[in-house]
Design a protein that fits this description.
heterodimer; A: about 450 residues; alpha/beta; Alkaline Phosphatase, subunit A; 2 domains; ten-stranded mixed beta sheet; two-stranded antiparallel ribbon; 12 strands; globular; B: about 450 residues; mainly alpha; two-stranded antiparallel sheet
């Protein structure tokens, strides 16, 4: 097994919570409840979008009003609005492999079996000690073009090494286990409206906790093409005809048995809903959103290409959040999983940026990529690494101003008592700076510790 | 007032409906065996209690057994397994009824151990006297945690359980009790306590006289120094209770209200039998409306367990947890104290979840088009439809059969004069037809 029990359990629980819209069963004293736990959850069919949305926190509004809200928000300037996309790298990724300090004399000692060689990955041009992990070549290219800000040691004071707790801090934008709203959710409470659920879009099976609001609604949409009906070992003509056959099962909608008729009507409605997805789904059952870049054939790629299409079509999205590919809780045999996950992450992000640029909307989109922590400098005996403190984050977009924020502290003086990397930038500073510089909102209204946090010039 | 009893023929079709309503559908051939007993014999057989015998292979998930007390979702899988393998389907189905009737969610209780203990109590006591069951529920640890029973003590009664006891469990809202009755009953119900053991949870549930308010209370206009047992007794002896109980129990098995004569006869039977769930249940299961009235939507757990039971499949994946959440019924997590809404099982979203459940069930049974020997699967559309319908052992309407046949004719029509398609399309068509049958209105209902 490549991940610790605590991590898989937290993933399961969070998924269950968001899926069910229920509260989190307390399994450990002191464990933070995920933001958004208290929000009610409803599904409705959006005429505007032609798909099923799950809406959180809008119990007073009927589907009609929510739909009108989306339409109105789109009509009143979806085009020029700035958007922030949050991508979570789950499990705590190993920043000392992603930007490996080959120029640091202690690196090979601490990483006796995991150390990469100088030629493995491209140089990091903002710090001669560091090289990019080979899987991150697409990000190195973005960095060279001035499209990427790197935070080589980002974290917070008194780091917590629990997946739950540390992720929770990042999601809520505060070192507060009790906070029930996400930092993007609180931003939306300031800049959003009470009837536009698309403003905070979780591109995930679940509500990403950072989007949990107190006042305005937000929504989840796994992908525009999610409402599909497939079958095992059925393709070619039998596969193409299958969906129409489902609709034909609705023939009993007029049956004198009211319950049978109701079940048949549901089948018909499901079929009707699938038809409405014609906007994004072709005859072959595949999603057609005409991406302007070549995305990797991964779930992450599909979600990002769907998001780019929605943004291009002026859907009134202000913030979006999703979980990136990979599972980075690499306690053992970490090279393979890290390579795969980070590679898919980098390819997906680079395609997304290219797509946005070709669509001419890159100027209004920033993407923040983060993980709950980095990993221990000293590797373990299983060719893996244990939970650490500061890690690496990226800010991507044509609007970024800097190539690097905060320095790499080095493996001699840069480690804390536990042998974990010290933070040279605080995620709350990043949030506060983005809230002000990207959205023009007073950071005190969104980030509780904004006053104590220095600002960084992130946006040109 | 005699109770109407179904007098039509009791063949496999009627036995099949009975097995779906009073259980989780037939195993192959089970409906014929039950039909052979006749209606009275069949109902008596279903009502037999005693130790259960689980038939078939025990669950295996990721190569291991289940950990229902500890691992998230495994409580759900554990119960699902019982539904699939039980030889006492009505006992198991009544356990589901009581889980909904006395809805308790682990979201609040936070202990799979206590939830399963409650579940076993329902399984043991579910067919006996209803007041006896309410007594057990009242002192049940999971319920005490769920409705704040431990926080209710002399001088500081918590009204949560007292209110739901009357509103949802025994009398119904607006049935003649007052806010004062709620407050007084809450006082009568004070005194339960437990200890929290660090790293383990709540233990040593007991009634502590020192925490109980033993002063006089006035409930339903009668005064007495009532304790918790009297509180329960007062509610089940309230004149509104017999109507509430019989209507609610009826509603789990027949989707339209009973006519006035039946209703009156059921109430009389309930009182005459000394508040016996078993006797009222027997009357409901023999009532003509169960066999002649409309169908019922299968709850998601019944739909899923039924498919696995039909096919003799064991619980072999954790996917049932997520799919059940999508479909709207994660066992041990009812949405609130009033249980699941039985009128809202089917919508476009839960229909997709049910499609996905069938998808997952069918995965291991699907023919591989490239690896299926020619002739294993018929190429004739009508025969393909017959194979798909009999795979599930159900009957479908003419309308559904036509839809299935049209599909098979189209796919096989596209295979004419194409050797490769002639070989691959029959297995693919059969795979798809099985899935379509599983999604049909007939299979979603019983």
């Amino acid at each position: 097994m490549n991940c610790c029990n605590e991590f898989s359990r937290s993933t399961l629980l969070r998924r269950a919570v968001a899926e069910a819209g229920n509260g989190l069963p307390t399994i450990e004293p002191g464990m933070p409840a995920p933001a958004g736990t208290g929000l009610d959850r409803r599904q409705f069919l959006s005429r505007t979008l032609g798909t099923a949305l799950t809406v959180y926190g809008a119990s007073a509004l009927g589907p009609r009003l929510l739909d009108d809200g989306i339409a109105r928000a789109a009509a009143t300037g979806g085009k020029g609005r700035r958007v922030l996309v949050s991508v979570f790298a789950p499990g705590g990724w190993d920043s000392l492999s992603l930007l490996y300090p080959i120029g640091d004399p202690r690196y090979r000692k601490l990483r006796d079996s995991l150390a990469l060689k100088p030629d493995d990955g491209p140089r990091f041009r903002s710090d001669a000690r560091l090289h990019w992990h080979p899987s991150l070549k697409p990000l190195a290219a973005l960095h060279a073009r001035g499209r990427l800000t790197v935070f080589p040691a980002i974290g917070y004071s008194h780091p917590d090494q629990s997946h739950f707790t540390s992720r929770h801090f990042w999601e809520v934008g505060a070192l507060d286990p009790k906070s029930g709203t996400g930092w993007l959710g609180r931003l939306l409470d300031v800049i959003g409206t009470e009837d536009n659920a698309m403003q905070g879009l979780s591109l995930d099976g679940a509500l990403m906790p950072s989007l949990a609001t107190a006042r305005v609604p937000v929504a989840t949409l796994a992908s525009p093409g999610d409402y599909r009906f497939g079958s095992h070992n059925v393709w070619d003509v039998p596969g193409e005809l299958l969906n129409d056959a489902i609709g034909s099962l609705g023939g009993l909608a007029g049956d004198p048995d009211p319950i049978l008729a109701q079940a048949a009507r549901t089948v018909k409605q499901a079929d009707g809903l699938r038809h409405q997805l014609g906007r994004f789904v072709g005859k072959d059952g595949q999603v057609h959103i005409n991406p302007k870049a070549k995305y990797p054939d991964t779930d992450f790629g599909r979600r990002l290409s769907g998001l780019a299409a929605l943004l291009d079509a002026n859907f009134p999205i202000r913030t979006a959040a999703l979980t990136g590919p990979g599972s980075y809780d690499t306690h053992a045999d970490q090279q393979g999983p890290l390579q795969d996950g980070a590679g898919q992450m980098a390819e997906g992000l680079a395609a997304f940026q290219q797509d946005l640029e070709r669509r001419g909307i890159a100027g209004r989109v920033l993407t923040l990529v983060w993980s709950e922590f980095g990993r221990r400098a000293q590797q373990n005996d299983s060719n893996g690494t244990d939970h650490g403190a500061a890690g690496v984050a990226f800010l991507m977009g044509t609007g970024v101003r800097q190539r690097m924020v905060g320095e790499f502290p080095g493996l001699a003086k840069g480690l804390d008592r536990d042998g974990n990397l010290r933070a040279t930038s605080d995620f709350r500073s990043v949030y506060a700076s983005l809230v002000e510089q990207w959205f023009g909102v007073d950071a005190d209204r969104v980030i509780p510790d904004a006053r104590k946090m220095p600002r960084m010039r992130l946006v040109a | 007032m005699p109770l109407p009893v179904y007098a039509g023929s009791f063949g496999p079709a009627q036995a099949e409906r009975l097995l779906w309503r009073a259980g989780f559908g037939p195993r192959p051939g089970e409906e014929r065996a039950l039909a052979a007993r006749g209606l009275d014999g069949a109902v008596a057989h279903l009502l037999t209690t005693g130790p259960d015998r689980l038939v078939g292979r025990p669950p295996k998930v990721n190569g291991r057994r289940l950990y229902p007390l500890d691992k998230f979702g495994h409580d759900h899988l554990w119960w699902l397994d019982r539904m699939v393998r039980t030889s006492r389907p009505l006992t198991e189905r009544m356990t589901l009824v009581w889980h909904d009737w006395f809805a308790t969610s682990n979201e609040t209780v936070g202990s799979q151990r206590l939830m399963i203990r409650q579940n076993n109590m329902f399984r043991r006591s579910g067919l006996g006297s209803f007041p006896g069951l309410v007594m057990r529920v009242t002192e049940n640890p999971a319920m005490l945690l769920y409705l704040n029973g431990l926080e209710s003590e002399k001088g500081a009664p918590n009204e949560n359980y007292a209110r739901e006891l009357m509103e949802l469990f025994t009398l119904g809202a607006g049935s003649g009790y007052t806010e004062r009755d709620v407050r007084e009953q809450a006082r009568a119900l004070t005194g339960f306590t437990a200890r929290y053991k660090n790293g383990y949870g709540w233990v040593k549930f007991k009634f502590d006289h020192n925490r109980h308010d033993d002063a006089m209370k006035v409930v339903f206009d009668k005064a007495g120094p009532y304790g918790w047992k009297q509180a329960v007794k007062l509610t089940v002896e309230h004149p509104a209770h017999k109507t509430f109980f019989t209507r609610k129990l009826w509603g789990y098995f027949i989707p339209e209200p009973a006519d006035d004569e039946t209703q009156a006869a059921l109430e009389a039977l309930y009182v005459r039998s000394g508040y016996s769930t078993r006797q009222v249940l027997a009357a409901i299961l023999k009532h003509p409306r169960l066999y002649e009235g409309p169908r019922m939507v299968k709850p998601p757990a019944v739909y899923l367990a039924g498919m696995l039971r039909t096919l003799g499949d064991r619980i072999s994946t954790e996917d049932w947890v997520w799919l059940s959440i999508q479909a709207g019924q994660l066992l041990f997590y009812p949405p609130n104290v009033s249980g699941w809404n039985d009128e809202r099982w089917l919508d476009t979203s839960t229909f997709q979840a049910r499609w996905n459940m069938a998808h997952r069930v069918l995965k291991k049974h699907a023919y591989h088009p490239d690896r299926t020997k020619r002739g294993t699967v018929p190429a004739d559309p009508a025969k393909l439809v017959d194979r798909a319908v009999s795979f599930w052992g159900i009957q479908v309407s003419d309308s559904t059969r036509r839809a299935l046949l049209t599909y098979a004719q189209k796919t096989m029509g596209a295979a004419v004069a194409d050797d490769d398609r002639q070989r691959k399309f029959p297995p693919m068509t059969l795979n798809a037809l099985r899935h379509l049958v599983a999604a049909s209105p007939e299979m979603q209902t019983s």
